[in-house]
Amino acid sequence: MSQLDLNKEIVFASSDTDVSHAISRLVKQGKLKKIAPRLYTTNLIDSSENIVRRNILNILMWRFPKMVISHRSAREMRLTAGGFFFLTGNVNRKVTDLPGVTVVVSKGPEGDRNDTVFGQMFIAGEYRWMLENMQVSRRSGDESKVLPPEVIEKKLGSILVASGEDGLNAYRDTLRETAVRLGMDKEFQKINKLISSLLATHETDVLKTPYARALSVGLRFDEARKQLFETLFDALQEQHFVSRQTPVQTEAEYRDIAFFESYFSNYIEGTEFEVGEARQIVETGIPVEHRNEDSHDILGTFQLVSNRSEMMRYPQSAKELVDILRRRHAILLAWRPDLNPGQFKTVNNRAGNTEFVDAKLVEGTLEAGFDYYTALTSPLAKAIYMMFLISETHPFNDGNGRTARVMMNAELFRAGEAKIIVPTVYREDYLLSLRKLSRQGEPSAYIKVMETLHRFGQTLCGRTTDDLLRYLAACNAFKEPEEAKLRFE
After folding, report:
1. Which residues, in sequence order, are CB contacts of 377 under 8 Å at separation 6+?
2. What pLDDT does 163 receive?
3. How many angstroms separate the Cα of 438 from the Cα of each of 231, 401, 431, 461?
4. Are 455 and 244 in contact (CB under 8 A)?
5. Which is deepest, 34, 98, 132, 154, by most CB within 10 Å?
6. Helix (H, G, I), strand (E, B) or coil at 39
7. How confident is the model at residue 418 (pLDDT cuts 50, 70, 90)?
8. Domain boundaries defined on the chain
9. Where are the alpha helices (DSSP H) in 29-148?
10. Element of type H or E holding 96
């Protein structure tokens, strides 16, 4: 009786006669419930299926000692959605007497020092399970013992991105050694073709996923971001966008709009000045004392967005997009050499829990997203898309938000439309809508926010400097989001 632990949900049968008798008594007393052959539970409320599923690894270790957790299960370490789990042992068999679970055992090599010890079992090492997943499965979907091709291709692609061709070749060498040891030459030949295709030394027809095919021709992109771009593109294509032409006529009027565009764009990023201070910086070119870098952030942004010739430029190819981005970033951060103006990032960056596009994938991701931009026709749709493309790719060490907004307004300016300016009071609406699209793949809030700001932008045009300042104040533009709401005509 001392070997029984009734504090645990699962109780295993025992060859000890005393323990067996004790289990029988507890079952008769209603304190234990039999849920499978030689398997009992202290949980008298939940279904046998749920109890088995959440204790599956402990059950497998007890029931299948010395076997190897293999194939897709070695990578996933959990039941498939359909309740399948895959092992390798000394005989082919299917076990179906566990409620809600099917254990499929394939005949194959025993576990060894290259596998991971897991209680009395083994977990196939990475090189072994990669080869195992090259085998043919008679079943598909959740019942298949092998992973979908895109999982394997993505794994190989990540090695190529992280370690380059030398790293992937070294990985192939270890796969070859593992295949020789385990007698898995057929499996190696299949994965070798995948690797050769990724390295562009073999026909790419064997590759199944766009991600892998892109890698094979040297175009490396963030697949998840490309899907986001496609989601936004589809939503933009479904919308009808109103054209809001700018009534700005004179260079003075344009400079006023450019000033507030620069002022608010920097304020969003935490570069906060009083309006009078910022205007003095722009008019004199002299930084505020003790705030040299912040002052030059204002100057750099204004210099860029007030240049109507520069703002007329637009990319007609992915290469031109890269060139324009770098040039504008170089102007924006000309006084910040520590931030590598005009140069894409070389190390990864993040904000909170958001991991931005890998530094090695920046150009490929921009290229992958460019086709959607080209296919859009509405100036506002193109501007909304361009802003998100740059913001989500986050190609630079710093200045990504400001650069993205410059690219957005260049699209509107060249089409003769009102610019989009994000006032302080609307900052949270803007940022939260971006976050919702980025993290949840939901574009509607972002599109709505940008349309609102486009309508707001049109009301700013055609006013004198003093009138514009008074109007912005009346709109609550300078207030913090928690203090007021944006109001405009």
Report:
1. none
2. 79
3. 11, 14, 10, 31
4. yes
5. 132
6. strand
7. very high
8. 1-45, 46-143, 149-216, 223-474
9. 48-54, 56-63, 71-76, 126-132
10. strand 93-98
SS3 content of the chain, % helix, strand, coil (to 5): 55, 10, 35
Q: CA-CA distance, 264 to 268, in Å (whole number)?
A: 6
State both tokens at 112: 């060894």
H-helix segments, 183-240 = 185-198, 210-216, 223-238
| pLDDT reported for residue 202 | 56
Residue 65 predicted with pLDDT over 80:
yes
pTM for the structure as a whole: 0.64
Which pair of structure tokens corresponds to residue 294? 């912040």
Mean pLDDT for the chain overall: 91
Q: How far apart are CA 9 and CA 88, in angstroms?
A: 27
Superfamily of domain 223-474: Fido-like domain (1.10.3290.10)
The burial class, CB within 10 Å (0-12 / 13-18 / 19+), for 258 is: buried
Give the amino acid at 29.
Q
- β-partners of residue 11 are 40
Could you write out the DSSP letters of every residue in 101-121? EEEEEEE-PPP-TTSEEETTE
DSSP code at position 288: P
Distance CA 119, CA 116 (A): 10
Quickly tell me which residue has 């020092």 as its tokens: 113
- 139-162 residue pLDDT tens: 998 899 999 988 898 889 888 877
The conformational region for residue 135 under phi > 0 = left, psi -120 to 50 = alpha, else beta, is beta
Residue bearing tokens 């992958």: 368
CA separation, residue 360 to residues 159, 220, 345, 348, 373 (Å): 12, 8, 9, 9, 22
